[in-house]
UniProtKB/TrEMBL annotation:
SUPFAM superfamilies: GntR ligand-binding domain-like, Winged helix' DNA-binding domain. GO terms for molecular function: DNA binding; DNA-binding transcription factor activity. This is Transcriptional regulator, GntR family. Keywords: DNA-binding, Transcription, Transcription regulation. PANTHER family: GNTR FAMILY REGULATORY PROTEIN (PTHR43537:SF45), TRANSCRIPTIONAL REGULATOR, GNTR FAMILY (PTHR43537). Residues 8-75 form the HTH gntR-type domain. InterPro entries: GntR_C (IPR011711), TF_FadR/GntR_C (IPR008920), Tscrpt_reg_HTH_GntR (IPR000524), WH-like_DNA-bd_sf (IPR036388), WH_DNA-bd_sf (IPR036390).
């Protein structure tokens, strides 16, 4: 949690835990779970879990089955590409805003997160890499101070991370990390144009990689 932020509500805790389980495929696509199972999984009560599930359903992560529970959404190419299309536009805005508005401390944190991603990639630690990817997104979002764009892009980022786990893009760690470092450097240099260009290059890299993987499956 970033300095100055309030502790998350129980609904937010339930949402984060369920989203993490879905994104990392601990809850597999197509899995059917009862409300009781999800309460046990996240460790909070019925109302926060229900609120979290409504939010996840709105984001396309689950489908609520009345009186039965939920089914975890499947993963398909059309959804992935549509998410990338929308994410690309939002990421450009966030990149530009972060380059313009980040504090000196935030610029350092952005560089450090990207370099940590590169280090994780170089030793093949996919779990650490993906955790750091999420951390970098959070630091950039905080620096951008663009809450509407941030709220809109977060579920799209989660959908793409889920696709990464699903297609096991281990071979892409080092090349993708290089794009993240270039992006972080552009933001840290307070260059909005370069930051948008680096964001576009990263999104293009993600798109090409996922398309190549989809064509093999």
């Amino acid at each position: 949690m970033l300095v100055g932020q309030a502790a998350p509500s129980l609904s937010e805790v339930a949402y984060r835990r369920l989203e993490e389980a879905i994104v990392t495929l601990s809850l597999r696509p197509g899995a059917v779970l009862t409300e009781a199972q999800m309460i046990d999984l996240v460790g909070v009560g019925r109302t926060p879990v229900r609120e979290a599930l409504i939010r996840l359903a709105q984001q396309g992560m689950v489908e609520i089955l009345p009186r039965k529970g939920v089914v975890v959404a499947g993963i398909n190419a059309i959804d992935i590409m549509a998410a990338l299309d929308a994410r690309e536009v939002l990421e450009r805005l966030i990149a530009s805003d972060a380059a313009k508005r980040a504090s000196p401390r935030e610029r350092i944190a952005i560089i450090e997160a990207a370099k940590a991603m590169r280090a994780a990639a170089e030793i093949g630690d996919a779990g650490a890499y993906m955790r750091l990817d999420k951390e970098l997104d959070a630091v950039v979002a905080e620096a951008a101070r663009s809450p509407y764009a941030t709220r809109a892009v977060e579920p799209l980022q989660a959908l793409i991370r889920r696709a990464w786990y699903h297609f096991e893009r281990q071979d892409d760690l080092v090349p993708a990390a290089a794009h993240h470092v270039a992006f972080a450097q552009a933001v840290a240099k307070a260059d909005p144009t370069a930051a948008m260009g680096a964001s576009d290059a990263l999104m293009l890299h993600l798109r090409k990689g996922l398309l190549a993987t989809l064509s093999r499956d």
